[in-house]
Amino acid sequence: MEDQNNDNQESTALLPRPYQCEMLEAALEKNTIVCLNTGSGKTFIAVMLIKALQTQIATMSLDQGGKKTFFLVNTVPLVKQQSVVLEKHTTLKIGSYIGADGVDLWKEQKWKREIESHQVLVMTAAILLQILRHGYIRVHHINLLVFDECHRGVGNHDYAQIMRDYVHHENVKYRPVIFGMTASIINGKCAQNKIESKIKALESLMLSRVATTKYQHQLEKYSTKPEESIVFYQQDGADYCVQSIINVLLQYNNGIVSEDELDKISNSIQKDCLSAYEELGYFGLYQIICLLITQHKSIHNIALYDKSKAAVYGQILNKLKKMQAMCEKYHFHSCQYADRHSKLKTLLDNLRKYQITMADDKDHFCGIIFVEKRCIAMTLSHILNNLADYDQSLSTFKCDFVVGHGTGVNSSQVMTNMTYKQQACSIDKFRRHKINLLVATNVIEEGIDVPKCNIVIRYNEIKTFSSYMQSKGRARAQMAHFIMMIDDHGKDEKVRQIRQWAACQDLLQRHCHDREPGHEDDDALTNLQLNLIPPFTIPSTGSKITMSNSISILNWYCSSLPRDIYTPASPIVKIQSLGELYKATITMPSCSPLPESISGRTARSKKVAKMAAAFVVCRELHAIGQLTDNLIPVKYLTTKALQLDDIFMDTDKDDSTEAETNSNQYQRILPEILHDCHPRLLEEVFLYRFQFKPNYQIYNERQFGIITSKQLPEIPPFPIYTPYGESKVSILSCGTELVIQAKEMNQIYQFNRLISQSVFRLHNNSLQFQASDSYSGYLVVPITYKADKIEKFQEATIDYNFISNITNHKEPLISIDLNNLEALKDAVVTRNYGNISGYFEVSAISTDRSPVDYMIGDCDRNFMTYYKEKYNLQIRNLNQPLLRVEHLHRKRDMLQCSKSQKLSSASQIFSNAMQKQLVNTRIHNSKNQVKVIEFIPELCKMSVVPASAWKILACIPSILWRMEGILLADEMAYILQTATVPNFNSNTLLEANSSLTLTILQALTLARARDQFNLERLEFLGDSFLKFAIATYLFQSYTKFHEGQLTTLLSHFVSNDNLCRLGIKLGLPGYIISQKVDHDDAWIPPGYCIKMEDDCMENWCEKFTESSCNSSVKPVQKLRKKSIADVVEALLAASLLQLGEISAYHFITILNAQIKFDQLPDYAIPLDTTKMEQINKIYCSYNLRQVEAVLGYKFNNRILLLSALTHASYNHPQLPIESYQRLEFLGDAILQYVTARDSYHANENYTPADLHDLKEASLQNESLAAITVVYGFHKYLFQMSPSLFSDIHQFLNVIDEDNVCKPNQSIEEKLLAYSKYILKDGEVSVPKPLGDIFESLVGAIYIDCHKSFKLVNDIVLKLLQPQKVMFANGVPRSPVRVLYEKFPSGLCFKKDTTEDSIRKASLELPDGRIFTTIGKNYKHCKKLLCNMALQSLEKEQN
To answer: What is the pTM of this model?
Structure first.
């Protein structure tokens, strides 16, 4: 509370004063503007009024008729100040809002939550105007509008717009109560005879009456009247020495940087230095130069990453240091010079005088010095602090300064543009008396709560009546002084003006008594012709385009347009004089979808004419969808605002909704052919056998296969990686249809159960054996046939004898019969003691050794002693022979070649296999001694499965897992062909069907499945093609969308969230292979199904998902969103490679039926003959045929060529030619696909990481910039940006200075040299438009040649050929990836905030080393940091 809270913090101080009660009663009776002196407690009246009306702002929602109170202020610091007052003195829910909170970008849902959850909303008027404009709240939802400092509500101020455009148009019955507060009812200059008309105008606008109290004598108790005095000074004249110092800034530029940029900064500094000298003399000039040097040192250090900027600030710094030296030469740094300047001496004399008078009360002194300029505020504060140390007569004063935060003032000192936080810090120190003298601009004239001041000095001339009133009101202490400093030149007129203002103050009091409320039909509302065009209201939201807000909406839209640092964010406005009237014409930036100029109605002033033209442009922008129904530029919203929900996923979710998990469980799909394929009694079944090539004389000892009631499609052969080497497996039909009897079927069931428990090593309690209703249906069987007819598979049959030998035993392991040792010759044994697992093959029976013999390698113990001591086992039969055994391989996953396994030729492997008996029966211990493994038969158990069969059966899980995967892929291949291949006949498979199936299998296999192949290479290609296809679709379908909107839509469509959603919609998760065959949750053996807790099948899925049963193996798999999205892209690539481009486009249409590539409109811009002649003239005069010659392509539509060469800073006169940004968007997607396609086919050994690195190196802006410069495309760029010209010039100079190219080099050699130089360490700063030019030219060619990809592909690869040569010796690896590989535990990157567009970041390695750098963006910083770290590591190694 600005006043009442200052005098006394006790609760008694908050009792209402009589005049406050009087004003409250007036406000409750009718709309009121309270006009009371500063410090009289106006805020307290507002608090009481809010509390009196709080029943209207109960917790009822707006939809149910609830209302809200809005407390509006003019400046940001007042938002916090007033909200704190309301929170302290009310029980209401208070919300405070400023622009720095990012409220400009808040969406409707966010605002509705804020409004509903608060009862009183304190904000700057601009924010309320914005949400009214967007229709987020209506006027009839407001019960009370409080306007702080309401005298500001004149002209086109935000207060005036709220009242004029919204409150005045609301039905009288539903209008809110209006309460205004001010200390000065007049804003600006005002003659006495115009006071009444000014008051009426404000009353009319605010629909209120101005009121003041009749208790003037009580009011004077709380708003002490200061003693006013005027002091005069003589303005010092010009000085030759000063002029020579300042002229240093205008000295010749040495050519390193552009004159324009240097002159701009120099002129700004020159103005500040001249102001400092005029206001503060020689000493002030020296002080501001010192402050500027400090500031520009900081800026120069930040800009070091950019040679051009570093050179600019380096020269400025050198000139400032030279100026400093000249000042010191003339002794301007001496404090004695402070008293040699008349104006500064006058100020110091008054301060010295006041220090003497306040000798007894120094601790409670507070004073303010008001100045006009920010640079003077900072410099004067610095001077006073220096003098306080030097001059005892000023030692009492401790100074700081407060200035505004904006950038509207033309000042070279960024330091003087204080943030709100810095302002609050300085004011807080003033309140707590850490400083007692504040030097400030008019930012604290009104509103902000500061202590009562003993002295207020106006260092500069007072310009307006309100400034006089507000600044004088700060002097509220007892016996305060208000001092006005006036130049004695023309002093009589200035003194007369001050006296007139003093008289106006008394006159205002008389005018403010017993007034009637104003009405909106007064002439004051139309004096700016703001009703020239009626408001355009959007019925769905209530949003309005008005004359008042049209310019702000237009500027906001232009700021949302995609642009680089060289492109202005404002339209071009030309105003034509038509006698007494004016007509404005607006030309939008060339990156806008409105390329043609638009004119508005004529008006009596230039300002109103500009508003009228902006009004028409805003209506047109809304009509073409560039402004939403809430009048928000579509850049700030997602596809929901673009009304494209059906085509693109809406990622604009309500912040309050709970985010979806990144991964979910999905049920795995069994191939359709395996559904219900269980062999049944007395019905025909199909027999298939497994064939191994080569078989290593191991896999031919016995044949195995499967039986199924359905005929399987042809399955292509596939490799497996056995312990003995690679073998290609074929699943072949035996051509025999069998009928199985009941007894035989039971034997087959039992056989599958036994081999699963032993060979397949199934020990999972979550599975149960139920062969008649198993998960996969098929069953494994041994196969036999006549030896002399082995090639005639039709006579093959199930080997029931072998099955009987196995199934005669109920358990998979049996005891060894010592009387039948011959049975051990082809046996698998396992130990029957201890907690030791593992299976061994018996290689020999040592009849010459027994348990009483000493163990080999242990001369101290025999077998009897060893087992007694270690396992407490007593061997009963001391005469039994020993078994020499060897380990059976534990490898379960034979679909992946292990790193240790050598893939040599079959003959080599077979040769090695002949020696396996010797090698495998020995184990090397830690001392490299050969150890022979010997078991005692009595302590072992024997498997019912012979060793020869065991080795083959061990391969079967991998074979069946691959078979199921191929069948799934074959099923998906059929779906794709049916949907994407034109005129596909389901009865006729494509010739390449086998290749298609295997490619799709690759596309369905995730990297985490650890298979011999995965989808990553296909996903790389599919991602590029998808972006290319969608970018083409967007470019041609949405011709009125600019590049930023197209990029947003493209990002939404290719996002993982959207592709995942589309993949789920197609049912892809069930087809995905995400696990290894030996994974516990992966393969379910034949004859088994998942154990159910009850017989209720309808609860089956729920039980799985919620994990209610004790199962760890389920027919579900957990997939991340990205995994599903990657599969979508990989399948797209598979369609592209195997079925062709047309099928790939059809596949995208499958993903979204509304995207139809065969219905895209042709790109065309209708032009009349005159404009075509202009285009041809430009083409000839700029010799653009040379560009065509370099490209090797002649344009049919030359407007595309012009557009591709037009930067957003340039507008072609009278020609609707848009900038290159849309074409750059398309060209970027084309280049990504061209390079991805080329690198994919270039080398099959490239890893996915290699492919990404190669594409990134080829298409990074630096690489494309090298192409542009070498081929000279930049010379034909249409642009109007001096800074862009300067940066390109600087870039070319750097290359020339470093002698990158040698004379007489060919184009290819130059490009190679340029690319190597630019890409080296990423330290060379390259203007982005250089790379954009090449991308836009590629996009223009593609559209001009009617989307002939082959033609564009050939042109691009020809131009990129030198780069391919450079990368031929090795893929350029990303430094970020290289460093991550060196430190797998992770890297710690940190972002630091810096000024302007410069970014600072640091990197900490796991070993504690820290690197810091500065770059143009954080991606650039990250690359630089990784290069620095790698160079440091390389130095250490060397």
So the answer is: 0.76
